[in-house]
């Protein structure tokens, strides 16, 4: 009875942890127009507000997973909560966009600690991959709840007080969770020879940081600009060194042999590509609501929350659905439905009604709700239990790389397309000469949002109309690119998960209790598995059988 209560507390705290980790994502996204106006920030600076959070998540998540396995998951869980609270406090007190970056970076470091640990806690508490799917569905639901609740709270806050107060919510939630976890969460770690891989960590951090910096600078200036070229070159070289280091390391931060599993590779590619398109989409969608439709943050939040509310409620039943429908089908169909929803959004205009936008966003939420729980579940279930933490960290790391690149790439596409289309729309509105030159100069220097700050007298209405049409040209390009990315992610999942049905790779089993549970489970659930004469042969056969059974279930 006591063990059941402890398991329930572990699962609940894991779900609360991912809720805290994702709180800043949409809270900031729906508040970007207010932050831009208050701090006079450019589009590139707004991209960095999102990327300042996602970048440390992508750069540190692998190290956090290893550190938790070696030094204790409860300890890293508590540190992650503390960093999330500290980052929110810094952003709450920010008087400049640079200080918001600092707060977001601290919160991102906290999220980097929480994301792999929360999945590892569930994997440790529920070793049966079939039963675990139900709780990963809950985990995904809490992640979606973290994206659904904050827009409404942020909107209500911005209706009455300043934008800084949007960062208040994570502070009490994180601190209260720390107190509860100190009493109810048991410590767990991997027993073995895992250790921190500093060469891998440094090369991965350099590669991710320079890649995102190069994309943002290339979008803001030009990809032929020396800063962008140097950053992207360093990123490629660092990534190559990282692969070489991990292949030779006796204790790699990311065991590249994980990618021999088609199921793990499929889930990782689907997560990377889909997050690249979707986080970038949410970035430009928030600007559309604020810049084109001139909605308040609360009104924007109500619209954007539809995506996450549908996904959240679908996540409550996905554990049962995943037992009856193959993950290959759910992921492929879900991502294709999401792509169709994005293509439907290309027809929106300045005066598109709430109802017309709502069904498209609800359709997007339906697609994501079908796909994302399966993507996460496969990443953990396709590897042995002792590698579950590493698999979760690797999947989340590449997902966050996609999430970091999304705003940078979509922001660059939006700016280039919109600024390029602006002269034609200005001419069509009857604005030429010095006024048109002034508007173009402001847009090229600080983004389309800067046009609203100009004193254009009687020409203001026509200027804002032309700016809105130029923005819509950029938005449609971003939606089209995002839809293509989701289709590519769906194709990757469909092809690789089809291969995984007939692909099994025996893996060595360390002599620890988690592996023993996995061996016994595999021997009981794998039809026709034979018992070998010695323990070593039995272990290998059992785990191979477990992987085959898992792939049959999820693939």
UniProtKB/TrEMBL annotation:
Membrane topology: Multi-pass membrane protein
Record-linked SUPFAM superfamilies: MFS general substrate transporter
InterPro entries xref list: EmrB-like, MFS, MFS_dom, MFS_trans_sf
Keyword Membrane set for record: yes
Domain Major facilitator superfamily (MFS) profile: 10-501
Region (Disordered): 502-555
Membrane-traversing stretches: 12-35, 47-67, 79-97, 103-123, 135-157, 163-184, 196-216, 228-247, 268-289, 301-318, 330-349, 361-380, 401-422, 474-497
One Pfam family in the UniProt entry: MFS_1
Compartments where located: Cell membrane
Polar residues biased stretches: 526-555
Alphabetical UniProt keywords: Cell membrane, Membrane, Transmembrane, Transmembrane helix, Transport
Similarity section: Belongs to the major facilitator superfamily. EmrB family.
PANTHER family in alphabetical order: MAJOR FACILITATOR SUPERFAMILY MULTIDRUG TRANSPORTER MFSC (PTHR42718:SF9)
Protein name (database record): DHA2 family efflux MFS transporter permease subunit
Species lineage: Bacteria, Bacillati, Actinomycetota, Actinomycetes, Micromonosporales
């Amino acid at each position: 009875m006591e063990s059941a209560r402890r398991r329930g507390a572990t699962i609940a705290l894991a779900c609360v942890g991912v809720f805290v980790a994702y709180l800043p994502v949409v809270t900031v996204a729906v508040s970007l127009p207010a932050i831009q106006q208050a701090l006079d920030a450019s589009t590139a600076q707004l991209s960095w507000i999102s990327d300042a959070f996602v970048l440390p998540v992508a750069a540190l998540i692998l190290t956090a997973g290893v550190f938790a396995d070696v030094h204790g998951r409860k300890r890293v869980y508590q540190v992650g909560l503390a960093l999330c609270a500290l980052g929110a406090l810094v952003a709450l007190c920010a008087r400049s966009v640079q200080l918001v970056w600092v707060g977001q970076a601290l919160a991102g470091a906290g999220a980097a600690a929480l994301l792999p640990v929360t999945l590892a806690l569930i994997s440790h508490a529920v070793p049966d991959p079939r039963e675990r799917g139900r709780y990963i569905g809950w985990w995904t639901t809490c992640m979606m709840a973290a994206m659904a609740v904050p827009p409404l709270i942020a909107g209500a806050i911005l209706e009455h007080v300043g934008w800084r107060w949007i960062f208040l919510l994570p502070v009490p939630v994180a601190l209260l969770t720390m107190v509860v976890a100190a009493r109810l969460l048991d410590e767990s770690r991997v027993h073995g020879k895992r250790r921190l891989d500093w060469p891998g960590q440094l090369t991965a951090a350099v590669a991710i940081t320079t890649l995102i910096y190069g994309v943002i600078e290339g979008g803001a200036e030009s990809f032929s600009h020396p800063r962008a070229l140097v950053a992207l070159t360093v990123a490629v070289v660092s990534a190559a060194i990282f692969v070489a280091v991990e292949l030779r390391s006796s204790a790699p931060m990311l065991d590249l042999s994980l990618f021999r599993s088609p199921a793990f590779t499929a889930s990782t590619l689907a997560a990377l590509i889909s997050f690249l398109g979707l986080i970038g989409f949410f970035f430009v969608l928030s600007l559309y609501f604020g810049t084109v439709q001139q909605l308040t943050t609360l009104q924007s939040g109500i619209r954007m929350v539809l995506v996450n509310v549908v996904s959240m409620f679908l996540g409550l039943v996905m554990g049962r659905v995943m037992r009856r429908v193959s993950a290959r089908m759910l992921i492929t169909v879900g991502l294709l439905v999401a792509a169709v929803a994005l293509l439907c959004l290309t027809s929106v205009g300045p005066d598109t009604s709430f109802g017309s936008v709502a069904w498209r966003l609800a359709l997007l939420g339906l697609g994501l709700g079908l796909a994302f729980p399966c993507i996460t579940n496969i990443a953990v279930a396709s590897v042995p239990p002792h590698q579950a933490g590493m698999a979760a960290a690797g999947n989340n790391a590449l997902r966050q790389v996609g999430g970091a690149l999304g705003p940078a790439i979509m922001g660059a596409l939006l700016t280039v397309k919109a600024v390029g289309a602006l002269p034609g729309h200005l001419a069509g509105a009857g604005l030429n000469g010095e006024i048109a030159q002034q508007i173009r100069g402001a847009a090229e220097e600080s983004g389309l949002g800067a046009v609203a700050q100009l004193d254009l007298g009687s020409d203001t209405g026509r200027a804002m109309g032309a700016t809105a049409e130029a923005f819509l040209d950029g938005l449609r390009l971003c939606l089209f690119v995002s839809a293509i990315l989701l289709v590519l992610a769906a194709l990757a999942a469909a092809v690789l998960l089809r291969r995984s049905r007939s692909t099994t790779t025996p893996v060595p089993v360390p002599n620890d209790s988690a592996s023993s549970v996995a061996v016994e489970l595999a021997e009981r659930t794998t039809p026709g598995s034979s018992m070998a004469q010695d323990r070593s042969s039995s272990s290998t056969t059992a785990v191979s059988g477990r992987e085959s059974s898992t792939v049959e279930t999820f693939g």
